Amino acid sequence: MARVAARLSVNGEQSSHPVDEVLPLPKLALYGFQHVLAFYAGAVIVPIIVGSALKLSPEQLVYLINADLFTCGIASIIQAWGIGRVGARLPLIQGVTFTAVSPMIAIGLGAGGGTAALLVIYGAVITAGLATFAFAWLPAKAFRAVMRLFPPVVTGTVITVLGIVLIPVGLKDAAGGAPTIADGGVPTQLAYAGATMLFILVLMKFGGPFLRSISILLGLVGGTAAAFLLGDAKFASVGQSDWIGVTTPFHFGAPKFEWFPVLLMLIVMLITMVETTGDTYAVGDIVGKEVDSETVARALRADGAATALGGILNSFPYVAFAENVGLVRMTKVKSRFVVVAAGAFMIVLGLIPKAAAIVASVPPGVLGGAATVMFGMVALAGIQTLAKVDLKEEKNALIVGVSLAFALFPATVPAYFDKHVGPDVSSLLNSGVTLGATAAILLNLVFNGLAKDEARSAPPAGPAAPPVELPAQPVAAPAGAEKAEKAEKAEKAVTADGAGTTAP
What we know:
By secondary structure, the protein is mainly alpha-helical. It has one domain (18-448). It is built from 23 helices and 2 strands. The chain has a two-stranded antiparallel ribbon with strand order 1-2. The longest helix is centred in the N-terminal third of the chain and has 29 residues, at 25-53. The model is unreliable at 1-15 and 454-504 (pLDDT under 50). It is a multi-pass membrane protein.
């Protein structure tokens, strides 16, 4: 019975591709490319927004996008493959965090815009990345104490907030893209979005396991093909793009280090640490692999290393991307080597602008239809984490509910912080993720205090780490006394009267 249970995923379906399985090359390529398509819009939107706000030239903007994709690929390989004690070794895609957009624009405009502003931004990014990397190497006792700030009620809330905040991003694309929203959107793009969503849902309902696993990819390809036949997908930019575009360190010049931009970026990285912690626990639950504090520490080290590398290679702060956590849950393809393949694709895209232009030609409606489905699955991943929390306790319910309300405030009253607080503070607070995550941490401290030092927050493994008893939830069937103990606990759970799920 234990062996059968070990083969099941968290939602009760058999996993045909465990997290450490190396798939055949054709499947690796196909599933990896699907991750790239699912991630692409989120990957390029940050350099586009920041570059446009800083009045960069089209050529400079293309360079930012290529640098971002190139660094994303390296960062994702580090996170999924793992180098020593850096990288979670889970199917986590690394992407530029949306949390940093407003602060980076504020820093850049304060520095006068243009490439000179990028140098100040990169100085702050490099410093914040190195600080995050160093933090994740804290001694076991200190790191464990910090991780007590992030019990399931906090991480589950943050992941739910991410999904809820991202859904409008997908819906805006579905309606034709942000510039068209004020005019009511574009009906044809909304039709493409609806058709793409319907196609994906039909595949999920009636397709076999393989078709379901690539439903997002097929939806994007099918929607783009239909738009092309109807004259709404344009590929002219492909012919105008170069074949090769190499990213070089410090392309725009030597970074500048100023105290306030550095402080602002350190605060951003604190928020991204909560995001990555939540994503790591969420994807661990999805793939059926136990996540302890050493896993979280490795994930944060990868974040810090990728962020510092981003500043060197003309990119921005990196975080584990929640969008692709939703894709892992939808497709049930749990192999981390799929993400390694996706990283290789992103490196290639970062070197070949012409190839990136093909992917960029996907109409916004098609992209928005697929993205909306995935973002909904991100929110569901957070809800699944919250299912481990006793929400009958009024204090836990208040933490979740009030944090969600804070997260929705910037979207509901977008101009409030711009009008009533200074630009520096506004750049930090005008983010649903920032407000929601901060509210969840503070409210949890008020109502629950620090979480108990449980096995889930075990200290990082290493020669000097004290022995810690891990929870009896291995992915593979335990042996000997551990197996007997697990069987005994399972028997008690079956006979218990109405026993519910408790927080780990």
